[in-house]
Amino acid sequence: MFFNYGVCYYILNVYSDSSHSALKYLKDTEVNISNVLLMTGDFNIRDSLWDSSFPFHSSISDDLIMIADSFYLSLSTPTNPGLTRFSDTMGESNSVIDLMFLRYGSIELDNHSILPDFRLSSDHAPLIIDIPIIEEFILSSKFAIPPNSKQELNFSKLYTSHIENIGNLETTVNQLGEIIDLMWVKNAKKSRYSKHSKQW
């Protein structure tokens, strides 16, 4: 989960075992999560849709596509298509079972990469994608006049004296805002919203 432009986005990391337990759960349960940016993980499904070396199509894959669609996600094509799972078992072939689904219509997130050389001792290659996060300036301080302070007394005195010098009602209405602004600027002190406030 992360925030961008004040909106909370979610990233789903899924592991579905050989019995497809996670997919069955997601299919049978109403998971109400909005603003899912991407879904990735080991789905344990071999299919010709994402593995050109595998000749068959599975109905489980249709369930996965349907689940992704419910989150407004579509299957991502890697920039460097290749294997994602490497087997050490004799007679068992390497495969593509690690996938990534990205948000529909996203310009910034359009594909991912597979890094087989970075798997180290794992039998799965990492999938990577850059998620741009735009820096946002957040105010961490405010102006205030401390109660029962010298500044509050000055503010009240100057405000009252200016009000007394105003003539008719029309002039009062036109000048009141300017007077308050002027007195505020002269007497308000800058302080943090809390001692923990920062711009990040």
Itemize the secondary structure elements and their pairings.
Layout (H helix, E strand, L loop, with lengths): L1 E3 L2 E9 L5 H8 L7 E7 L16 H12 L2 E3 L22 E6 L9 E2 L12 E2 L12 E4 L5 H15 L4 H19 L1 E4 L8
Parallel strand pairs: 2-3
Antiparallel strand pairs: 1-2, 3-5, 4-5, 6-7, 8-9
Q: From N to C, what is the helix and strand string?
A: EEHEHEEEEEHHE
Q: What characteristic shape results from the CA principal axes?
A: rod-shaped
**Regions with pLDDT < 50 over 5+ consecutive residues?**
none
Average of per-residue pLDDT values = 84
Percent in helix: 25-40%
Number of helices: 4
Quaternary class: single chain
Strands side by side in the biggest sheet: 1-2-3-5-4
Assigned CATH architecture of the largest domain: 4-Layer Sandwich
Instruction: Summarize the biggest pleated sheet.
Output: 5 strands, mixed
CATH C-level label of the largest domain? Alpha Beta
CATH superfamily of the largest domain: Endonuclease/exonuclease/phosphatase
Number of domains: 2
Structural overview:
With 200 residues, the chain is α+β, with helices and mostly antiparallel strands. It has two domains: 127 residues, Endonuclease/exonuclease/phosphatase (Deoxyribonuclease I, Chain A); 52 residues, no CATH class. The protein contains four helices and nine strands. The strands form three sheets. Strands 1-2-3-5-4 form a five-stranded mixed sheet, covered by helices on one side. Strands 6-7 form a two-stranded antiparallel sheet. Helix 1 links the parallel strand 2 and strand 3. Helix 3 packs antiparallel against helix 4. 16% of the residues are buried.
